[in-house]
Amino acid sequence: MALDSKIPNGPISQKWTDYKNKINLVNPANKRNIDVIVVGTGLAGGSAAATLAELGYNVKAFCFQDSPRRAHSIAAQGGINAAKNYQGDGDSVFRLFYDTVKGGDYRAREANVHRLAEVSTNIIDQCVAQGVPLAREYGGLLDNRSFGGTLVSRTFYAKGQTGQQLLLGAYSAMNRQIGRGKIQMYNRHEMLDLVIVNGKARGIIARNLVTGEIERHSAHAVVLGTGGYGNVFFLSTNAMGSNVTAAWKAHKKGAYFANPCYTQIHPTCIPVSGDHQSKLTLMSESLRNDGRIWVPKKLEDAQAIREGRLKPTQIAEEDRDYYLERRYPSFGNLVPRDVASRAAKERCDAGFGVNKTGEAVYLDFASSIIRYGKEQAKIKGLNPDDEKLVKQLGTEVIENKYGNLFQMYEKIVDENPYETPMMIYPAVHYTMGGLWVDYNLMTTVEGCYAIGEANFSDHGANRLGASALMQGLADGYFVLPYTIGDYLAKDIRTGKISTDLPEFEEAENNVRTQLESLINNKGTHTVDYFHKRLGKIMWDKVGMARNAQGLTEAIAEIAALRDEFYRDVKVPGDMYGLNQELEKAMRVADFLELGELFAKDALHRNESCGGHFREEYQTEEGEAQRDDENFAYVAAWEYRGKPSEAVLHKEPLVFENVKLVQRSYK
After folding, report:
1. Helix, strand, or coil here: 397?
2. Where does this protein reside within or beyond the cell (predicted)?
3. pTM for this structure?
C-alpha cells in the first residue's frame, strides 16, 4: 500500500488556508445525522469531542478514568507554545515552525508542522475566551517564558499546572455539550478493539470497567486521542493507566504504526529511588529557565556527596561544572530535551552523579534567587546588599513562578529546594512515534483518525517542551473538525450503523476470547512481574542509548517474555466486575508486542537522530549523527500477524523550506 500523505500543493504558508477553502463540508442539518466516536478525553480528545459536538455531530466520548478531568493531560506542568510574539523578541510563525523541525532533528513532516505553528495563535485566544487563567505580565498581556530548543519566549503558562487549567477549559466545553445531549459520555470504559465494516472504521468494542460488560458502539468515524506508549518502559512520568491498547488494536486492524523508536527521555525528572517505585515524577522543563544544572568538577567531591560526607551547598562555585553552559553556550540550560538528557547521562556515566545510585545531577536556583532578590530590593527601594532580605525577596519571586512544583518536590524527596539544589535525572516521558496519519489526521484505516500524542505527525525524533499541549489542542480544536468533515460529507445518507453486523459480533467474540484466556490462565506470576521485566529490557537496551547488539538481544528477549507471559501470568478475579488486574493484563499484552516492534524499528534505523541515539552513529563530540541520504523518511510498520513479521513502508520526508543541516546548539 502506497503511503499517500495528501499534502496539499502550493507554498507552505498557504497550504492550510487553500486546503480549507477547497475541502467538502457537511451542512448543519446533515451533521445531526452523523455519529463520531472519540476515544480519550485529554486535551486532544476532549477538545475534539467538544468542537465536533458544537458543530452539530453526535459524539460518543470514551475514557477509562472516572472523569475526563483525570486524563493524563492534567499532569502537564510547564506551558503551551504559540507564536504570538508578545515579548517582541523576534518570534513568528515561521520561527516556531523552524524551531520545531530543527528540534525534531529534521524527521518531521514540514506541512503538518507549519500548520501547527499557524493555528498555535488561535489556541491561546480560544483558551483565554474559555477563562483559562494563563499568567499575565505587569502590562496585562499574557506572560511568556522560555523552553528548551528556542531563543525566544513563546511559552504561555499557568504557574506549574498549565495542563490542568487547559484541560478544565476543554472539559467545560465538553460539559456544555453533554448537557445539551450532543455528547454521550462513557466514563470507566476502555476500547478493546476497532470494528471495520467494508474497509471503513465503523465502531469500537469497549469494556465497561465497573460491570465488566462488553459493549458494541457504532459510528461513522472513530477518533483516537489516547496518548502515548511511554509505559512500555514500566517506569515513566506517565500516569500508571496510560497505555497503547487503543492505538495497538487499530494497528492490528490495519493502521500503520510510525516511528515507534522515537521516544523522549525528559531531562528533569525526580531520580529513581529504588525497586519499589511504580512511576516517576516530572519536574517541569520551565524550571530550566531559572535553574542551573551542574555536577561537581572533581570525582572525589561527587563521591563524598554520594556518601553523605559533603553537601552540594559546600561545593565552591569554581568547583562546579555547569556542563550544559560549558558545552552549549548559545542555549545553555535550555538545550532541547534529548541533548540535555544525553549530557546528564554522560556526566553520570563518568562518575559525577550526585545521589546514592550515582544517577542524578543538580538543578540549582541559588543564583536566580539572588538575582531576583536584588532586582526586587531595588524596585522596592531597599538595600540590595542585605543578604537575608535579598534571599527572602528572591525566594518569593521563585515561589510565585514555580511554587507548586517546589512543594511537590519537597513532598516527594523531603528536601527544601529553596535551600538545597534539586536532584534530577532523565526519564521516559513522551512518545513521538504513534499511528501514521496523513495531512487529514486519518490513519491507513479509512475513517479512523489519530490525534495528539497518539499520532506521529508533528515532532519528528524529539519534541520541544510545551509543544505537546499545542499539538493536542491544535488537532482537537482547529484541524480535525475541518478534515473529518471532508470525509463525513460522503456519509450524509448512510444512516445509523447497526451494531448487529457480523463484523461487530466477530470483534466482540475476539475480545471476549482474549479476556477469558487471561482470566482462566493458571499462572504463578502477577502482571506487574512481567511488566517490570519488560521495562528493564527496554530501559537497558532500548533506552537513552542503543546499539545493534543490545537491540538484537532485546527483540529476542521480549518475544520470549511474551510467550512466558501467556503461559505463566496469573489474573485473579473474574471478567464480570471491576478487575484492575485484568485491565493491566490486557494493556501489558499489547506492550509486549509494541516493545518488540519498538526495538525492531530502532535496529533498522542505522543513524542517530533526536531521541533515537545509536551509539555506533555519533560525532566526535558525542552528538547525534543523522544519515539524511538513507533515513530521511517516516518508518511506517504494517502488522502481519506478529511484530517480527511487520512490513516496513516509507514516507520520504521532503524539505523545501528548511535546510537539512547538522543540529547545533553551541
Report:
1. helix
2. Cell membrane
3. 0.97
